[in-house]
Amino acid sequence: KARASRADPILASLSRNSLRMSDVQLLHGPHWLNEAIVNFYFAYMEEIKYKANDDFLFLTPEMSQCMLYMDDKELHSLLVAQYKATRKSFIFMAMNGVRARDRDAAHFTLLVASRPDKTFYHFDSYGGNNSNGSLELSNNIKDVLDMQRARFRSQRCLQQSNDYDCGIHVICMADQLTDYVNRFDSVDGVQPLHQDVIKAKRNQLIKLIASLGQHI
Known about the structure:
The protein is an alpha/beta fold and 216 residues long. 40% of the residues lie in helices and 19% in strands. It has helices at residues 21-25, 35-49, 61-67, 72-82, 131-141, 166-184, 195-213; strands at residues 10-14, 17-20, 56-59, 90-98, 106-114, 119-123, 151-155. It has a 5-stranded mixed beta sheet, with helices on both faces. A hairpin with a 4-residue loop joins β5 and β6. The two termini are 16 Å apart. This is Ubiquitin-like protease family profile domain-containing protein. Keywords: Hydrolase, Protease, Thiol protease.
């Protein structure tokens, strides 16, 4: 995936996550974000912003999708043996489902497993289209995470003002939630995002990627 290409060069890399010029161009206009950008931002949270925080685990959309179809043995190998997930207070899972209204359009949402709250919180900026998938994932992983008694809760959140900003909403919600739980050790009580935060995020991401690109 990360092969050199003069037509579509890699602009920034973190561990196994690379961003090409074509990925970054999606941030410039009214476009859906792809998995590469969401993956990259979750890698940034894991490897840079919250590198010293042992309470947080960030799982990409691809990982969340795979976990839907894993049995307990496979989940244990991934979540417990590899990621030490039973020691994490908060697990942030970006999900990539399909919108009921448009079968060809991917839709990103955010599922958060909170041990202090004993709850799986689902944040969906487009009317609850990923609720079934997020509930299914919660039920599939709660035994392995030792969160058998955790409840599932669809959390009220800012709704998209267009049909293409779901990825931006997930990134902004991940930002807000990590900051909030760092201070309060709970998801409960977090307020919905403000529209201004969404509007500013694309330019912030472009600047962040440019700054990280210097380290290639």
